[in-house]
Specification:
This protein is α/β, with parallel strands linked by helices. It folds into three domains: about 170 residues, FAD/NAD(P)-binding domain (3-Layer(bba) Sandwich); about 120 residues, FAD/NAD(P)-binding domain (3-Layer(bba) Sandwich); about 80 residues, FAD/NAD-linked reductase, C-terminal dimerisation domain (Enolase-like, domain 1). It is built from twelve helices and 25 strands. The strands form six sheets. Strands 1, 2, 3, 4, 5, 6 and 18 form a seven-stranded mixed beta sheet that branches. The protein has a five-stranded parallel beta sheet with strand order 8-15-9-10-11. A five-stranded antiparallel beta sheet has the order 21-22-25-24-23, with helices on both faces. Helix 1 packs across helix 9. The longest helix has 15 residues. It is globular and about 55 Å long. The chain starts with a strand and ends with a helix.
Length: about 400
Amino acid sequence: MNEALIIVGAGHAGGRAALTLREEGYTGRLILIGDEPHLPYERPPLSKGVLQGTADLAGCSLCDSAQLAELDIEHIAGNPVTRLEPQQHRLQLADGQWLPYAGLLLATGGRARRLPQDQANVLYLRTHDEALALRSALNPGTRLVVVGGGFIGLEVAATARGLGCEVTVLEAGPRLAGRVLPPVISQALLDLHRSHGVDVRLNVALESIQADAVLLVDGQRLPCDLVVVGIGMQPNIELAALAGLEVGQGIRVDAYLRTSAPNIYAAGDVCEFERDGLYQRQETWRNAEAQGRHAALNLLGREVPFEALPGFWSDQYDWGVQTVGVITPLTVSRSLPDGGLLLFYLDAEQHLQGACGWAPGNSVAKDIKLCERLINARTPLNATNLADPELSLKHILRG
């Protein structure tokens, strides 16, 4: 290959792809183009360690500048891609220069979904710089309203409580993290936040945000100093759409993470792939890591289908929730020590399809790892055994 392999998007997925290409022996020109001035970094610490002041950018970066130089990865920051021409196998940067490519990975991620009004007391959390801006505003006694009861909003709420803020969480739906968690764990999450003094309000709608208060549609006025909005992510599909690539809620790919244009792949939060006949995107650390690696292999011509199981985790105070696989209607429940819970999702043939765990600290992680092995084993399971906390998952795995 005379021309370069180019990665557009220097976040987690793009950074992991670049590092993987070098690990796998690619020695040609490799260019990594990012919107942010920073080196590739992981986002989960932003709402926890970075916001608490216990972690910094170096601690969540995938590499440092010395490593990039040693690996001969060209990092272009502050000069974003403005145009993509798939037929000519080239792209244009903001400064006007054209770069030809032999293969291209679009890992353009997304941006925080914003409210129509923009004002000084409304903050978002998607990037490292946004985390620093929010951290400087979270002082003891600060009255914070969090709009959105998903994981970003709840992690910010937990961190803010730990910093001494007065916190109210507003959720439009009937339960917390309702899109991804089963009702029993949504309820446990609600109880946990309320026990830490968070005023959680469900089924509420926002009327407007003022300089010193939030107004609800039902007429309530909530005095506050600061509003954090966590209502999801807007995938950055504009570049792909303008270039004529197939898009839906993300950049659409086939089983090999190939887009509808030759030699162009997509990975990470922006990638929309098919699973069980439905297109979906996954905005998780696990997906960015897995797809970044996978896209790199297929850029090198490996032709390996992407079959990694979905999964995520979230830390809330001193509790953790973790999932793997897919949720099905058939559910078996197992009690864990200290009030924890493990849910197993089975198909009609009693094969494990997914699992969801809730427990203190990171204690559920080992169970979820065993569940992943049970899913991959494709062995019919006994529901009574799964429900029995006296019967170890290791024992069930051995058959």
